[in-house]
């Protein structure tokens, strides 16, 4: 019996009209649907008039047994369609382990492209001048978050990231501390009834964010570095590095944040920079 195929199916990020005809055909022809959330999957299938199919849950907590079961269905010749809650699977969504398991089992893995919050936000940002970096959701706190923020600040290209509405204000503030002049697009509730696009500098939007409550899905597009900003720390003399540290300290920035950012930009171990910052502060 020939092995089945895994179809990785993009679904709408809001507006149900964004489902592609090919996606509908694949979902209709599939023997089994694998879904991040079975309730949402069944609601979409019902809207499309597709019924009578088994829908199995397969989310970020999928066990080895869940993956082995999916591989067994493929080995039995079943055609599987995988879908997440919204948008393109595996883009800040579960699915990597499933794709690896299918490939290891010798099953073809076929992308069914469609809606993507990343590409939708980029297309209306006016901020892409070449390549871009996608970082997904930033860590919630601690050193991992500081290093991620430093990476965004030191990236010369446009950066796309997702954020929870509960942390959007904090993220805008944290980025504004590092790159206040950088232009940004806040894309909220893309393709939905209350879609909203806000443009301006990080300093401006961080200040405006203090006066509002964010709701819904948020995608940020941080524009590319301005002339003279990208690679600012590269090739600096010791005196220039100390001057930058002094400037950041005078602005009230925390030593650990300064160290995180400079270590990324200079390619120097963080502990070395941190010791230098604390010495300057002393």
TrEMBL record:
The keyword Transmembrane helix does not apply. It is an enzyme of class 2 (transferase). Keywords: Cytoplasm, Methyltransferase, rRNA processing, S-adenosyl-L-methionine, Transferase. One of its GO terms (molecular function) is rRNA (cytosine-2'-O-)-methyltransferase activity. GO terms for cellular component: cytoplasm. This is Ribosomal RNA small subunit methyltransferase I. InterPro entries: 4pyrrol_Mease, 4pyrrol_Methylase_sf, 4pyrrole_Mease_sub1, 4pyrrole_Mease_sub2, rRNA_ssu_MeTfrase_I.
């Amino acid at each position: 019996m020939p092995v089945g195929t895994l179809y990785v199916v993009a679904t709408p990020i809001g507006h149900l009209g964004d489902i592609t005809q090919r996606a509908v055909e694949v979902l209709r022809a599939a023997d089994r649907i694998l879904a991040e959330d079975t309730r949402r999957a069944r609601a979409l299938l019902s809207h499309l008039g597709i019924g009578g199919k088994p829908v199995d849950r397969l989310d970020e907590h999928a066990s080895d047994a869940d993956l082995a079961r999916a591989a067994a269905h493929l080995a039995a010749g079943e055609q599987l369609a995988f879908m997440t809650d919204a948008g393109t699977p595996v883009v800040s969504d579960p699915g990597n382990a499933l794709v690896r398991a299918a490939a290891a089992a010798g099953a073809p893995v076929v992308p069914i492209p469609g809606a993507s919050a990343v590409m939708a936000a980029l297309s209306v940002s006016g901020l892409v001048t070449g390549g871009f970096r996608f970082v997904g959701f930033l860590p919630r706190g601690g050193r991992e978050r500081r290093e991620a923020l430093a990476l965004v600040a030191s990236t010369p290209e446009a950066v796309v990231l997702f954020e929870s509405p509960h942390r959007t204000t904090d993220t805008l503030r944290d980025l504004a501390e590092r790159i206040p002049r950088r232009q940004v697009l806040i894309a909220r509730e893309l393709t939905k009834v209350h879609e909203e696009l806000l443009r301006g500098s990080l300093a401006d939007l961080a200040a405006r964010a203090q006066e509002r409550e964010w709701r819904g899905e948020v995608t940020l597009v941080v524009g590319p570095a301005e002339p003279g900003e990208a690679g600012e720390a590269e090739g600096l003399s010791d005196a220039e590095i100390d001057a930058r540290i002094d400037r950041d300290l005078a602005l009230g920035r925390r030593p650990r944040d300064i160290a995180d950012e400079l270590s990324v930009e200079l390619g120097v171990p963080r502990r070395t920079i941190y010791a230098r910052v604390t010495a300057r502060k002393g």
